[in-house]
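Any chance you could type out some protein's one-letter sequence along with its backbone structure tokens so I can compare the two?
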Amino acid sequence: MTTRPPQLRKRATRLGGALVGMALVLGGCQHDEVVTASIPDDYKQRHPIAVEEQNRSIVVFVGHARGGLTAAQRADVMGVASAWLHEGTGAIRIDVPSNTPNARPVADTMREIQAMLTAAGVPPRGVSVHPYQPEDKRFLPPIRLTYSKIAAVAGPCGLWPEDIGPSMKNKRWFENKDYYNYGCAYQRNLAAMVDNPSDLEQPRPETPSYTPRRITGLEKYRKGTTTATTYPEADKAKLSDTGR
């Protein structure tokens, strides 16, 4: 039976300790890398556009001595009906004040609102009426029409978790990377302008072609003439005939 010399045993012990220390250091470096990479560099990932359900509402103020809707209020109610038919995801909720000094005019106004919604194509099951008690009697309680729709949202913007100037704490400045709030306003404006939130996820199907225009273009192509659209009064917009 042979035994290792003491020098070899000490050398093996030091080598094992060095390997363990190196593993701990590498593990710590890997952990630090995960932390520093927690903020994405792409503004689309820092400020993603989310699709969620939101409420849209209007208010109709009714005075004490007049029932019915004004011309502007009729336009608002018809706007709600048209928008609900296009984008509504739930019933139109109508909150009606009760036991108020303007209770009689409110009842007359409610009948007109319901008649307008029915005439616009909103079915009876698409309207839900709920009476409510105003919390503050000093203010005129309105009739409130609310419906839910699918909307795209982004933000909030204006968050500055760190100084964007050069400093020892802001390492991203020395790495020439975007600051955190960069791109947030763009994403928020894009979400507010999009007509259909599903357009952010998938393209719309193609619509049928305009047959009369296609036939005109093919007929010109068959005759060997230009297929460009010509306007008889196009030359009248020119300021001068110089160069003809």
Residues 20 and 75 are 76 Å apart (CA to CA). The helical segments are 6-36, 43-46, 71-87, 103-119, 171-174, 184-193, 211-223.
